[in-house]
Structure prediction request, 226 residues.
Amino acid sequence: MRLFRDWDWESARASLKRALELTPGAAAHQWYGLFLDMEGRLDDARREIERAVELEPLSIVTGALRGFQLNLAGDPARELEQFRATVELDPNHFLGHWGLALAYEHAGRMEESVASIRRAIALAEGSPLLTAVLARGEGLAGRPDEARRILAAMEDDASGGRPSAYQRAAAEVALGDPDAALDHLERGAEAREPWMVWIKVDPMLAPLRRHPRFKALAKRVFASHA
Prediction:
């Protein structure tokens, strides 16, 4: 999708609406719901995700997306309930455990959060994305040295398992270094990292939102947005 590399919001909107007209199945509703989430239209997004769940109630992906939508909407109790249900559907899928880690984080249960993300990493066979999430979790759990150790090991990984600039920024927020976080986000913007489209709504970046550098980055990502 051109959205992730070109930040062409209006072309993406047109394509997603066309997809809904042609094949109005769960996948089309999921993608359009995610797009609306990125824009910050959370109520509209919720309706699309709920429709996807209605169409495929036993899908791990749709269940996880409902949980992530509750994460964005700031509903930790329902988020935790949803991700527990998602894990019950398939205990061996990493998505449910990743979401459960976020839900435990929002509930302030950091040890359970870290345990869940470690389980997700094992199931995803060492995903760099999830390893960066683990570093963030260790920072929030009060273990900054361990968080830094994880990040340093990833940077030295010759196999290409380095964290994205965006995920590194999220870890730096947890470690209390907003300037470093903004530096990484600016690198992510220069590289046109796909994760940058979440900059407007991602709760992990909330402490940065009033900073002029952050506002400039968000404006850049949404420059084509009508």
User: Anything to note?
Assistant: Residues 72 and 157 are 32 Å apart (CA to CA). The radius of gyration is 17 Å. The mean pLDDT is 94.
